[in-house]
UniProtKB/TrEMBL annotation:
GO MF terms held by the record: cysteine-type peptidase activity
Signal peptide: 1-19
PROSITE patterns: THIOL_PROTEASE_HIS
InterPro entries per UniProt: Papain-like_cys_pep_sf (IPR038765), Pept_his_AS (IPR025660), Peptidase_C1A_C (IPR000668)
Source species: Polaribacter porphyrae
Name of the protein this chain belongs to: Peptidase C1A papain C-terminal domain-containing protein
Gene3D superfamilies: Cysteine proteinases
Amino acid sequence: MKKSGLFCVAILFSFLLNAQDEEYATGLDFSQEKYESVPLSAPILTRSFTRLPKSYSLKPYAPTPGNQGNQPSCVGWASGYGAKTIAYAIKNNWKYNKTKINQNTFSPSFIYNQIKAYGDNNCKRGSFIADAMKLMNNSGILKKNEFGYNPNNCTTKPNSYALQKARNNKIATFERLARWDNPYNLVSKVKKAISSKNPVVIGMFKYGRLSGPGDLWTAPTVASKGGHAMVVVGYDDNKYGGAFEIMNSWGTRFRNGGFFWVRYNDFKNYVKTAYVLVDNTGSIPNKVINNNTTTTKKYNTISGEITLKLSNGRSMPSTLSSEAKRNFNIVKATKNKKLKTTYAINKSYSSGTQFRIYLKSKQRGYVYLIGYGGSDKSVNKLYPFENFSPFFNYTNSEIAIPNEDYYIEFDNKPGQDILCVLYSKERLDINSIISKAKYGPSDFVANIKKALQYKTFKGNEVDFNTNKIAFNASSSSYTSKVVPIFISVNHQ
């Protein structure tokens, strides 16, 4: 009888665990085409992942986990209520201030009600994370106390006033962290994002059952159910042999107060999509008053470094132009055949010489690389690569061009080639800039400067390094956004 009683208890316990999952909806739709339309994060060097902290958590910035109930709105909860709220709390330095954070959560309905399937007035169908990110990027989002959540109603749409107000809460950008069927380096990329204070919205696929005892999710024997959108809030290399902490949207009775852990290997196998959300910094000019004198603090800063290395590992030495500062904002075409650049590589290299370009951004920002061939006056975009984001999301991040395995080779057309690196505080229309560089009335350098003249830092706001190709720029003007660096490379 005892054995029979224990057996019944075990069956009942198993039934209750499965019923807990059935109590809540999920609501994530998957599309390879939609996922791969989102730019990949910058392909930073492998060594950039080797010095990550052993553990890091954004949980002190997270709101109390909410409950989506029976509405398939997990995408709105993960992207808006979860990731956007966390990013907003980080921006406002509300660490551990749960009251303040909970008072400023963002609305899951603002997202779900606008991106759900057309004609789904009964709230039965899910949505895509990519659509949620695009909505917040292009149109912004309202707070939950401005656009409430009703699990039984998904037809209410924001009016024109609400949409205008939502624009104040746009995110800066978003990126995907891996390819559809290739989770290579996904764990390291998510850890890098989290340790850089960027929440990551994930889509779990065919995960079986999420509910259970304790705070660790284990992979199912038979995978059947999926998908579900959630937010990664932390990681710990020593917990469960290495695991991510995830915030769900099934209330605080789920697992450990609404949070649970997933081992790295299970994460790699069951997470189909991963997006990093980057919020706007919201910087404004700071007025500082000292002794009745008002000054404007230089808040607009940007810095970068470029290195050219031969295939044997040696650097290609360069010299800073003596007129770099004076000519920085001059857009007039040069009368000489040789174009004036910021730096010049000291030595001429023969055709067939192989080299690699390393671009480093010392802070978050956008980086572009344009190549100019002096022999045929060709202009080409060298970076970002196709389907990659121009955004450098991490401080002191570095990429290699063409990549860590291959080199650029000088062609058989001798002459003065020019590399133009654009460091920017905002996204640029790189195709428009290239078009103006190709077809403008002046030379390549002058055409680029002309295209950017209203966004470029002033020459006296930029400090150039004389020992290497590097700079630091700072300005009190909100219009200063871009630093163009021109590098002359001669080959014979």
